[in-house]
Amino acid sequence: MKQALATIVKPLPDHLFRVHGVNAEMRWEAMSGQGYHTPNDRFFVRNHTSTPLIDATTWRLRLHGAGIRRPREFSYDELRAMPSRTFDVAIECAGNGRRFYGTQQRDPVPGTQWGLGAIGVARWRGVPLRYLLRQVDVRPTAVDVLPSGLDAPFEGYGHVRRPLPIDKAMDDVLVAYEMNGEPLPPDHGFPVRLVVPGWVGIASIKWLGDIEVSTTELFTPWNTVFYPDITTQSVKSAFELAWNARLPVGRFHILHGRSWSGRGRIVRVEVSFDGGVSWREAEHHGQHLVSAWLPWHVGWAPRRTGAHVLMARATDETGARQPLTTPRHPYGYLFDAVVRHPIDVVNG
Ligand SMILES: Nc1nc2c(c(=O)[nH]1)N[C@H]1C(S)=C(S)[C@@H](COP(=O)(O)O)O[C@H]1N2
Ligand SMILES: [Mo]
Predict the structure, then answer these.
(1) What are the tens digits of pLDDT across the range 297-316?
(2) Rounded distance between C-alpha atoms, residue 166 and residue 146, angstroms
(3) Which atom in ligand 1 lies closest to the alpha carbon of residue 201?
């Protein structure tokens, strides 16, 4: 597994990340005291193979396919000179929370055993995909848009690629070259990646090399074998605390957390300190953008030492509320049940 660790370029210090093979999960305590965005140095990394190092001066983004009239290539400088937009958007792996199918529901699912740290929110800047599609004269008969990555082919399946329906591609998708005010870091897609708001992370293809626009429905292993039939993310909540964090007894603590949903804004967050018997509404603060997350906090003065469980449950604007248990998913995607977060209340 030594070689696997070298597939991510940025440092993965143990206090910020848990490494799972070729992937690195953010530890939620790394968000404590941070602002709205996840800093680049602690944003999770999900790689099918390894991070490629791409020379932006020779790199081109090729648009082609039967769904456009004027196929062409764009250079990095051309993209950067086009009108840009800036969006605060979460990217979250479909498998975020997979571990809890096993640890909480006693029904483990194989695959990367993510806790809740396969999510981050960044400020992405780039060119709306619809501007590019208009530049190449997208046809009214276009059906699917297929972005492909330049990272090494994955096993026998070719380059990482997953089609998007034309309606989503023309809506809010960004061809991003900046993350939190800096050029995209290599691990997050330099020179250019897609950012697909609200959808599972696999839609946001990194290291973009080409985009095919088709007039028929497209199929790749990433919408048939690996991530079939999933689009929007489910509702989740996390405390900005270490797993088994130690909190001193008899003091007043302000516990912070964040909640999010791929389907809309969070309207309510409740917290329980007694295993779900009673729930208290958390206070919201800061901004809440539709495809990002809602930061919240709640005050608590633990009165006895020993093991405790923290629970947070959110409701989004579509009325979807986190359940206490969620049905098994064959791939372990879209875990949305309330996570039982263990802490230790100690003397001192
Ligand atoms: N080219 C390419 N794009 C990719 C991937 C990949 O391995 N190769 N992984 C996808 C998956 S499964 C996720 S969850 C997100 C993760 O983005 P991040 O590594 O910037 O956090 O990128 C997606 N885009
Ligand atoms: Mo993912």
Answers:
(1) 999 999 999 999 999 999 99
(2) 10
(3) 14
Ligand 1 proximity of 302 Cβ (cutoff 6 Å): no
Q: What is the Å distance from ligand 2's center to 232 Cα?
A: 12
| Residue 1 predicted with pLDDT over 70 | no
Q: pTM of the entire structure?
A: 0.96
Structure tokens at 80: 């950067």
Mutational pocket test of ligand 1: of 38, 193, 202, the residue with most ligand atoms within 8 Å of the beta carbon: 202
Q: Which of 46, 192, 194 to mutate to test the pocket of ligand 1 (most atoms within 8 A of CB)?
A: 46
Dist CA 316 CA 333 (whole Å): 19
Q: Is 114 in the pocket of ligand 1 (CB under 6 A)?
A: no
Q: From the CA of 154, which ligand is nearest?
A: 1
Q: Report the C-alpha gap between 237 and 215 in whole angstroms.
A: 39
Atom of ligand 1 nearest to the CA of 47: 7
For domain 236-346, the question of CATH label 2.60.40.60 is answered with: no
* Best CATH choice for the domain 3-214 from the list 3.30.300.30, 3.40.50.170, 3.90.420.10, 2.60.40.1220: 3.90.420.10
* Half-sphere exposure at residue 219, Cβ-oriented, CA atoms within 13 angstroms: 4
Distance 200 CA to ligand 2 centre (A): 7
pLDDT band at 109 (very low <50, low <70, confident <90, very high): very high
Per-domain boundaries in the chain? 3-214, 236-346
For residue 227, what pLDDT band results from cuts at 50, 70 and 90?
A: confident
Distance separating alpha carbons of residues 90 and 291, to the nearest angstrom: 6
Average pLDDT taken over every residue of the chain? 96
Beta bridge partners of 175: 127, 194
Are residues 131 and 169 in contact, defined by beta-carbon separation less than 8 angstroms? no
Confidence tier at 286 by pLDDT (50, 70, 90): low
| Ligand 1 pocket, residue 151 CB under 6 Å | yes
Q: Measure the CA–CA gap between 192 and 173, rounded to whole angstroms.
A: 13
51 lines ligand 1 (CB under 6 A): no
